[in-house]
Design a protein that fits this description.
96 residues, 3 helices, transmembrane helix, membrane, transmembrane
Length: 96
């Protein structure tokens, strides 16, 4: 029983127990409504217990290669010389 069904059963039991004022010598509707409400409360408790057991051991693993790709720790060795990143014009470098 899911949580919304448990709430629906509790509401139906409350309507039967407190809103209906029909009298009968065989059936006491107040008692029947309270029993239905207790059944809905037991269903809510069971659905909560089952849902909380499923969510306890959820672990997300990251592949080591992906983790290394986004590693932001500084390198062990510093670069000794600067790297030239100026663009090279294709017209000046011609091979004959």
């Amino acid at each position: 029983m899911r949580i919304n069904v448990g709430i629906l059963v509790i509401a139906a039991g409350a309507i039967i127990a407190f809103a209906i004022r029909a009298t009968s010598s065989q059936v006491n509707l107040t008692v029947v409504g309270i029993i239905i409400m207790l059944g809905g409360a037991a269903g809510l408790w069971l659905s909560y217990r089952i849902a909380s057991e499923r969510d306890v051991e959820e672990i997300t693993m990251i592949k080591p290669t992906v983790e290394e790709q986004y590693d932001t720790t500084p390198h062990k060795y510093a670069i000794d010389e600067q790297i030239d990143v100026t663009p090279v014009d294709d017209q000046t470098t011609k091979y004959h």
